């Protein structure tokens, strides 16, 4: 398998981010803290190299993403109606089609988080009915600077299905059959949609990466 150098550098930077965040959280030695912050600087420079972005543009990440130890957690929803159509949104940032979802927030369960994301991004109210699985971003084609665990839920729509819908995050939404997905699909989502339909067909085993 061909190695993507930029993704490899980003993964190394994310590992350094994790170590420095954990070190800064628990270290009481000022000299150790200075060293952890110096390593954090190196990780940010590596991210700038991997993305081609100016270092100053990444600086706001220092107080948010770089302060968090452990992988980040996101969630998404496979909202499938009674006819077997899945709800997809066209993302405003890259124009790719994807299942609605996003970062989970402190104080909410993963299921509640994906239900919230569906409503915010598509205007569709739904309920989570089954866990599809927990997916490691490194193994499922996600394009991300940070290592993510993505928790996916099968969801059932609760009302009429509004179209069209548009926000600053969403260019549009659509309902698609399993064999008629859009061409411009986010690769990480396209790979996981078969798992969603497997669960929809009552194979309720939750997927996890070994």
Give an account of the 3D structure.
The structure is a single chain. The chain is built from 5 helices and 8 strands. The strands form 2 sheets. The chain has a 5-stranded mixed beta sheet, sandwiched between helices. A 3-stranded antiparallel beta sheet has the order 3-2-7, with no helix packed on it. It has 210 residues and is of the alpha/beta class. The protein has 2 domains: 5-67, no CATH class; 72-208, Nucleoside Triphosphate Pyrophosphohydrolase, CATH 3.90.79.10. 36% of the residues lie in helices and 24% in strands. α1 runs antiparallel to α2. The protein is elongated. β2 (85-91) and β3 form a beta hairpin. It has helices at 5-26, 30-51, 55-58, 110-122, 187-200; strands at 72-79, 85-91, 97-98, 101-103, 126-136, 148-157, 170-177, 207-208.
Tally of strands: 8
Uncertain parts:
none
**Tally of helical segments:** 5
Please write the CATH class name of the largest domain.
Alpha Beta
The description of the largest β-sheet is: 5 strands, mixed
Q: What proportion of the residues form beta strands (DSSP E)?
A: 15-25%
Q: State the order of secondary-structure elements, H for helix, E for strand.
A: HHHEEEEHEEEHE
């Amino acid at each position: 398998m061909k190695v993507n150098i930029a993704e490899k550098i980003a993964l190394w930077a994310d590992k350094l981010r994790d170590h420095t965040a954990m070190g800064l959280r628990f270290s009481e030695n000022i000299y150790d803290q200075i060293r952890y912050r110096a390593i954090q600087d190196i990780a940010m420079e590596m991210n700038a190299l991997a993305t081609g972005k100016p270092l100053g543009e990444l600086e706001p990440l220092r107080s948010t993403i770089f302060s968090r130890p452990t992988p980040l957690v996101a969630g998404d929803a496979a909202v499938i109606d009674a006819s077997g159509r899945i709800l997809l949104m066209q993302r405003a940032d890259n124009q790719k089609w994807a299942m609605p979802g996003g970062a989970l927030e402190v104080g909410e369960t993963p299921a509640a988080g994906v239900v919230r994301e569906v409503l915010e991004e598509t205007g569709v109210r739904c309920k989570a009915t089954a866990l599809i699985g927990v997916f490691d971003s490194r193994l499922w084609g996600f394009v991300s600077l940070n290592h993510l665990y993505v928790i996916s839920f099968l969801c059932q729509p609760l009302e009429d299905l509004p179209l069209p819908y548009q926000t600053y995050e969403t260019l549009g939404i659509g309902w698609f059959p399993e064999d008629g997905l859009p061409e411009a699909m986010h690769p990480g989502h396209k790979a996981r949609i078969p798992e969603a339909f497997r669960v929809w067909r009552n194979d309720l085993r939750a997927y996890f990466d070994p």
